[in-house]
Every structure is written in structure tokens, then in C-alpha cells.
Write a structure and sequence with these properties.
With 141 residues, this protein is mainly beta. It has a single domain, classed as Calycin beta-barrel core domain (Lipocalin, Beta Barrel), CATH 2.40.128. 0% of the residues lie in helices and 55% in strands. The protein has no helices and 11 strands. Strands 1, 2, 3, 4, 5, 6, 7, 8, 9, 10 and 11 form an 11-stranded antiparallel sheet that branches. The two termini are 29 Å apart.
Length: 141
């Protein structure tokens, strides 16, 4: 794992969703979306905005220290802990937990020399199935 000070450094900035590059096993891909990752001290801060197929606008933000440690998270009935880690300069992962059980894994991978980010989200359902959604973002210039 890389140092916390350097973790996620190459992911910082603004990203625009490439809608045509979305592949969903669960739900429907959004009409549009954006992603912003910034640093605040030791923490990485994630801001996501998307418009769903019905035209409803959603915003979500979360933050964490990319050291792999699950920390309390106010996710209501969906998650009570969140962990972040950066196993390499081109990988940035997060996991969400509820009552000690991992329920969601998100892997962000930089491709094309860091000009694109592929986000793969896997949900772990009670029956053991793991539907996966994949989205691709381009770096905003």
C-alpha cells in the first residue's frame, strides 16, 4: 500500500461519465453523471452527481482516510462503516459495511495513462449473488 499522503493522488480532479460505456447488471445506467475527488488533509473526499433514467438528480458525498481501516459512516440502513485503500497509484478501493458485514465493494482503476477512470461496483446480496455495475469516466480538462 502506498503512503496515506500519496494515496489516491492520481485520482484527484473532476470526471465526466461516459454513458455509452456503462454496463449494469443491477438497475439502469444513469443519463449523465460526474465525479469529483479531492483531498482534505489525510482524507479523500468524493462528490458524485448523476441523473437517473427518469430525470431525477442525485448527489452523494463521502470521505475517508485511504488506509484500509473501516471507520464509522452515516449511511443509515445501508452502511455503518466505510473503508478506503489505495493498493497502487492506479487503484483506489472502497468498501461499505453494515453490522460488520461487507455489502459493497467499489474499485476505481485509472486507464489510458490516467485519462479515464473505470469504476466497478459490486453489491453483495443476502443470497450470496454479486451483481456488478461498471462505469467509465473521462478526466475533465
Amino acid at each position: 500500500m502506498i503512503s496515506i499522503a500519496k494515496a489516491g493522488e492520481r485520482f484527484l480532479g473532476d470526471w465526466i461519465l461516459e454513458v455509452e460505456r456503462c454496463h449494469y447488471e443491477q438497475g439502469s445506467p444513469p443519463r449523465s453523471g460526474s465525479y469529483r475527488i479531492e483531498r482534505d488533509g489525510e482524507e479523500l473526499v468524493f462528490h458524485m452527481k448523476w441523473v437517473d433514467v427518469e430525470g431525477e438528480i442525485f448527489n452523494l458525498s463521502f470521505r475517508g482516510i485511504p488506509d484500509g481501516e473501516p471507520r464509522p459512516y452515516k449511511g443509515g440502513d445501508l452502511a455503518d462503516h466505510l473503508s478506503l485503500d489505495a493498493p497502487s497509484p492506479t487503484k483506489l478501493n472502497s468498501s461499505a459495511y453494515l453490522k460488520g458485514v461487507e455489502l459493497m465493494i467499489a474499485t476505481r482503476t485509472l486507464v489510458d495513462g490516467g485519462q479515464h477512470m473505470v469504476l466497478t461496483q459490486t453489491i453483495i446480496l443476502p443470497d450470496g449473488s454479486k451483481p456488478t455495475n461498471s462505469t467509465r469516466y473521462r478526466r475533465k480538462v
